[in-house]
């Protein structure tokens, strides 16, 4: 009996394909100067179908009533890897960040990877205390002693 239950469990487990699911930021409509990276834009993508996050960034200027408004428009979504990679490759020649009419489409496959870019915060004092220098110091000393 235990063998039957175990076999049934493993059959169901393998049949589901492990149930891979990713979370992405999603805003289907282009939003002007809003990168839709706040918690209300987080969605669960379709299991085993949408395995990537996609991000489109368009730099535009709009004229309305003799006024020009410039800004960056964002659209983010879940996507299948095939569709996302084909789309991003097709727009690669139009991607020129910082230039007007630039269209950049990127794909990624880690949770919430289509969100804002993390700013690198490097504190040189912290690196000297407990970061790279103490780790690299023995290696550098050994290297110097072999060449001197």
TrEMBL record:
Any coiled-coil regions, as ranges: none
Highest taxon of the lineage: Eukaryota
Annotated SUPFAM superfamilies: Snake toxin-like
Keywords: Disulfide bond, Signal
Cellular compartments per GO CC: synapse
Signal sequence, start to end: 1-19
GO molecular function, one term: acetylcholine receptor inhibitor activity
GO biological process, one term: acetylcholine receptor signaling pathway
Matching CDD domains: TFP_LU_ECD_LYPD1
Protein name per its UniProtKB record: Ly6/PLAUR domain-containing protein 1 isoform X1
Organism: Geotrypetes seraphini (Gaboon caecilian)
């Amino acid at each position: 009996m235990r063998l039957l239950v175990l076999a049934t469990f493993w059959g169901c487990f393998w049949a589901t394909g492990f149930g891979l699911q990713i979370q992405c930021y999603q805003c289907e409509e282009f939003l002007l100067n809003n990168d839709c990276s706040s918690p209300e834009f987080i969605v669960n993508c379709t299991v085993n179908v949408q395995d990537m996050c996609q991000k489109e960034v368009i730099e535009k200027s709009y004229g309305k009533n003799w006024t020009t408004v410039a800004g960056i428009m964002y659209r983010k979504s879940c996507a299948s890897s095939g569709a996302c990679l084909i789309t991003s490759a097709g727009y690669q020649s139009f991607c020129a960040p910082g230039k007007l009419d630039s269209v950049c489409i990127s794909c990624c496959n880690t949770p919430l990877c289509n969100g804002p870019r993390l700013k690198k915060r490097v504190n040189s004092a912290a690196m000297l205390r407990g970061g790279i220098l103490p780790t690299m110091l023995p290696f550098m000393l050994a290297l110097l002693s072999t060449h001197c």
